[in-house]
Design brief:
Homotrimer. The protein is α/β, with parallel strands linked by helices. Helix content is 45%, strand content 14%.
Length: 218
């Protein structure tokens, strides 16, 4: 019997954790240490974006060395081929800033969840109906949490996550508005901490975010 989790189990794991760290770095050095520092702080789900130099190698290394501590996915996926390469490298979920059916198809073919991006109510519904396991509203900071409430009022079956505008002060508002989980980039994965190799500082910040999510959900 395979121990590989199903797509549904992976989605449930991400929703249960409620927090996805978005790693968008300027260089390939320090990516594994970044993942370790986040995991040490309790952040157990992270996406490494394809805009990061050496992203595929970093995904492979992180999955191999931290697979039992952290669920590592890929972000900023723009087409089927990138999704395929990232999953073959070890990505456990696929995130895109756009809605493109071929990305969902490729992820699902390999049994991995896909979070496609959308911005309007029509795009959100189209992405969800095309199979996006959770729809990433991006950029979410322009409309804020109220946008989630407005969309979910007539379409409560949708599963939404925000990227953009999520920090320690806004986390309660996003969950109150109906977010299944939140994606956090620069507010958590601070480039200055990475550049200074301040892994203890990054771990401490990760703990603050984990505590904030736990407090909202308690």
């Amino acid at each position: 019997m395979s121990n590989t989790p199903s797509r549904e189990e992976l989605v449930k794991q991400i929703e249960t954790v409620g927090l996805v760290a978005i790693i968008r770095a300027n260089a390939s050095s320090g990516l594994l240490e970044t993942c370790k520092a986040l995991a040490d702080g309790g952040v157990t789900v992270a996406e490494i974006t394809m805009t990061t130099p050496g992203a595929l190698d970093a995904i492979a290394t992180a999955h191999t060395q931290l697979g039992d501590q952290m669920l590592v996915g890929v972000g900023s996926v723009l087409n089927r081929e990138i999704a395929k390469q990232a999953i073959e490298a070890g990505a456990q979920f696929v995130v895109s800033p756009i809605f493109k059916p071929e990305i969902i198809e490729e992820a699902h073919k390999h049994g991995k969840p896909c979070f496609c991006g959308a911005f309007t109510p029509t795009e959100v519904l189209q992405a969800f109906e095309a199979g996006s396991d959770v729809v990433k509203v991006f950029p979410a900071n322009h409309n804020g949490p109220k946008f989630f409430k407005d969309i979910l009022a007539p379409m409560p079956h949708l599963k939404l996550t925000p990227t953009g505008g999520v920090d320690l002060t806004t986390i309660p508002d996003w969950f109150a508005a109906g977010a299944r989980c939140v994606g956090v980039g620069s507010a958590l994965v601070k480039k200055d901490l990475i550049e200074k190799q301040d892994w203890a500082g990054l771990t401490d910040l990760a703990k603050q975010f984990v505590d904030a999510v736990a407090k909202v959900r308690s």
